[in-house]
Amino acid sequence: MMNEIALKDTLSGHRVSGPLIPTTELAVADRIPAEPAEVKVELRNDGGKVSFGIRGYLRLFQISRVIAMLSMYLYLDQLDLHIKHQNKKKAERLNRAYELTRAAVYGEKLWGIKLWFFQSFLYSLRRIFLGTETNRERIQEKQAVWLKEKLITLGPTFIKIGQSMGTRADLLPLPFVKELGMLVDQVPPFPNDVAFAIIEKELGKKINEVYAEFELEPVAAASLGQVYRARLHSGEEVAVKVQRPNLDATIKGDIIILKKVANFAERFPQLSENADWPGMLREFDVTVHEEMDYTAEGHNADRFRENFKNWSNIHVPKIYWNASTRKVLTMEFIHGTKVTDLEEQTRRDIDPAKVNRLLIKTYLKQLLEDGFFHADPHPGNLLVMPDGRLAFFDFGMVGRITPQLQAKMIDAFFHVVDKDPAGIAQDLIELDFLKPGTSHESIKPVVERMFEFHFNLKLKDVNFKELTYDLADVMYDYPFRLPSNFTYIMRALMTLEGIGIITDPEFNFFETAKPYAKEFMLRREGNDFRKFFVDKLMGRDEGGKIDWDRTWKLAKMAFKTVLNN
Q1: Which of 185, 254, 276, 376 is flagged as catalytic?
Q2: Residue 340 sits in which domain range?
Q3: Into how many domains does the chain fold?
Q4: Displacement of CA 470 from its chain's centroid (Å)
Q5: DSSP state, 214?
Q6: Which of 131, 122, 190, 181 has the alpha carbon at shortest distance from 156?
Q7: Does residue 33 belong to any structural domain of this protein?
Q8: Exposure winner among 78, 341, 363, 381, fewest CB in 10 A?
């Protein structure tokens, strides 16, 4: 029996205590069982149009019920903010009515009475479902457990969505964040005989022909698959990731159902006015299908490793391609501890704050330099190795940033560093944070006032969560929205801030990121400007103009950076 080893594999933070069994002792099924324990949605194709069977409509009802209950919980949790907005609108309507007729004033007062009854009803609902201030947290804990169990029952698609929600402390009450965070590593596994049969079918060989030893039970189970520990005949210890059965059909059916729910929600603009839900669903559809392709995940890992080949403190597990397919991935097994396990890091003489700064620096490189980033940096996908290196896992969910979007993000950082609210307002417009048809001139003063307030604070006193709460009130009155291409960028940044707060109580993302972001920005902008300037001298790109204002800002920033060093 092996000593217990603290590890983080590609899916969770389970601890390994079982032995590696010689594969000659394994009893492996000859084929995949006809009815594996997975949810199926009955779909029919009627003349090119997909329709539901009875089980499909039943699943639509189950999913809609969970979404409706969660929406109600979240609405009631933020009820004071909604009431404040409604009362503000009521006052504005009454003031306009005074400029019209007495009948209009009476009409608005009558509408105000109806609104008062409606708000009283909402307060009663909140008392029933969320309780009072004294017992609210206990009630929310029960609701969070209910939600987690429902998501597990609904299957892989919704476990994956729940994992994403579990990183959003800016949107969800803390009990929900804690409970949904368990979906990272506390998902029921599927049977071993099914997993072993999938491995043999995918690799076209018996398990004992590929692996010399294989652990009987999975070390981790998550939304899309589970992981076993094994050893190759050549002696390398490996992690074997196996996809859940019937996953493609399950995901496809769920996406169709979610599109129906999104189409229904579009009938009520107030439900979707501050987010591009159809765009986010499209992005989720693309991303989850990428995650289901383990061959693509392996290539993503190889690309990430190449991007960090000159970083001796970053490690990416090696992929064993001779034992990998679209549904099975065999990779190097890494030992270490979670980035949030401060006690274990301290015991190994590793400074958690340094690990956190390294993590931030890697993400700034990914976002500002590579244009290719790990989109799921929760603590389960990051491991601190015994020698202090930071290991990245699970490259199924990655984000890509076009050069055009990168340039706009770098412009935004210029304006943040320069404390230029007008420039930031223009950045939000160009980054599509405003709904189509919005008057840009009417928005700029609002953004300027909001950011001027934060610029008067010390940078270390500003964080994403505070900015989000400030934006919440503004987004009621003005047409801001989160563009779909920022969904995974913001999710990654929010998750990183959460890790930073755990590993370093004094952590502030902006304060920590500032020197690294300036370094990468100077390097990238300097390279681009040098190429552009040479092209001008050589007579290329005749239609272009040199942005001397931008060039001056770049030179000034470089000069300050040199002085500070």
Answers
A1: 376
A2: 5-27+190-247+290-400
A3: 3
A4: 21
A5: E
A6: 190
A7: no
A8: 78
Q: Report how far residue 367's alpha carbon sits from residue 406's, in angstroms, rounded to the nearest whole number.
A: 7
In a domain, 266, yes or no: no
Residues 278 and 262: beta-carbon distance below 8 Å: yes
Classify residue 290 by burial, with Cβ atoms within 10 Å: 0-12, 13-18, 19+. middle
Q: Are residues 392 and 461 in the same domain?
A: no
Whether 518 and 428 map to the same domain: the answer is yes
Q: Are residues 307 and 372 in the same domain?
A: yes
Residues 6 or more apart in contact with residue 230 via CB below 8 angstroms: 20, 211, 213, 214, 215, 237, 238, 239, 240, 330
Residue from 308, 329, 321 nearest 392 by CA: 308
> Averaging pLDDT over each range in 58-67, 109-118, 149-158, 280-289, which range is the top one?
109-118
CB 26 within 8 A of CB 214: yes
**Which tokens hold the place of 177?**
């964040």
| Tally of helices (H runs) and strands (E runs) in the chain | 21, 16
Statement to judge: residues 485 and 510 lie in one domain: yes
Check: CB of residue 501 under 8 Å from CB of residue 300.
Answer: no
Q: Note whether 60 and 82 are same-domain residues.
A: yes
Dihedral sign of CA atoms 367, 371, 375, 378 in order = negative
In the predicted model, is pLDDT for residue 269 greater than 90? no
* Residue pointed to by tokens 């009072």: 132
Q: What is the pLDDT of residues 495-511, one digit of tens each?
A: 787 777 777 777 777 77
Whether residue 437 sits in one domain with residue 478: yes
Token pair, residue 165, equals 């929600």
End-to-end alpha carbon distance in the chain? 53
* Domain-located, residue 550: yes
Residue 389 resides in a domain: yes
| pTM, full prediction | 0.72
Domain boundary among 132, 158, 184: 184
Chain-centroid distance of CA 468 in Å reads 16
Which stretch of DSSP H or E encloses residue 276? none
Report the candidate in 167, 531, 206 with the shortest Cα–Cα distance to residue 381.
167
Asked if 376 is an active-site residue, the reply is yes
Looking at residue 546, its amino acid is I
State whether 425 and 387 are in the same domain: no
Average pLDDT over residues 38-52: 49
* Domain closes at, from 400, 423, 449: 400
Q: What distance lies between CA 479 and its chain's CA centroid?
A: 23
